[in-house]
Amino acid sequence: MFHHQTTKWLDKHMLIDQMVNSGVKVTTIARKLGVTQAEIENYFVHPDIPFDIIKKARKNEGSLINIEKIRKLPIHSMLKHKLYQRAVLPKKHPDRLTTDKLQKIKWLLKRDYFNDLGREDQWEMLQQALDYRGTLENTWDLDIERRLKRMSQGELILKFTFNPDSYNNDLNFSDLIN
């Protein structure tokens, strides 16, 4: 179980959970498996994590490691619960909270004054972090539009700049745009 890397964390958790619930002591499990007690305890689920989340994680092969990371986030429990819900969505669901998305959330939480926002604003910001690709693409689109607008304004200014030395009363419209 511990000497082969093919055993998933969730499978190890479930086996250890079954043994502990059967009355086997953690020290006994660790000794028989040839690992430390701390290594066994890494596969326990913290009691603060709601049972329905654990159940959905098992059903949808959710990452209990990510769920534990969510539990440790310095945010309100209501926001944690919303993140838990995202973490246990079905495996291929586009809104599922992945390790990569969780990393973007951690970046956001390190921003100055994030904690000064109200809960609703915090959740909106967290959703932006969850959709970091869409947020980044939107930022790029806005930046491209801004740059194109600046370029086009610059060209218009150059085309219509008046030079009194080259002023000719006989100019027509086609002369102005060339």
Based on CA atoms alone, the radius of gyration comes out at 29 Å
Instruction: Please tell me what the overall shape is.
Output: elongated
What percentage of the residues does DSSP assign to strands (E)? Answer: under 5%
Number of strands: 0
Structural class determined from secondary elements: mainly alpha
Query: How far apart lie the N and C ends?
Result: 77 Å
- The average pLDDT score comes to 86
Helix content: 55-70%
Tell me the number of helical segments per DSSP (H or I, 4 or more residues long).
10
**Largest β-sheet summary:** none
* Low-confidence regions: none
Written as H for each helix and E for each strand, in order along the chain, the element string is: HHHHHHHHHH
Structural account:
- The protein is built from 10 helices and no strands.
- The model has no long low-confidence stretch (mean pLDDT 86).
- α5 packs antiparallel against α6.
- It starts with 8 loop residues before the first helix and ends with a helix.
- With 178 residues, the protein is mainly alpha-helical.
- The protein is elongated.
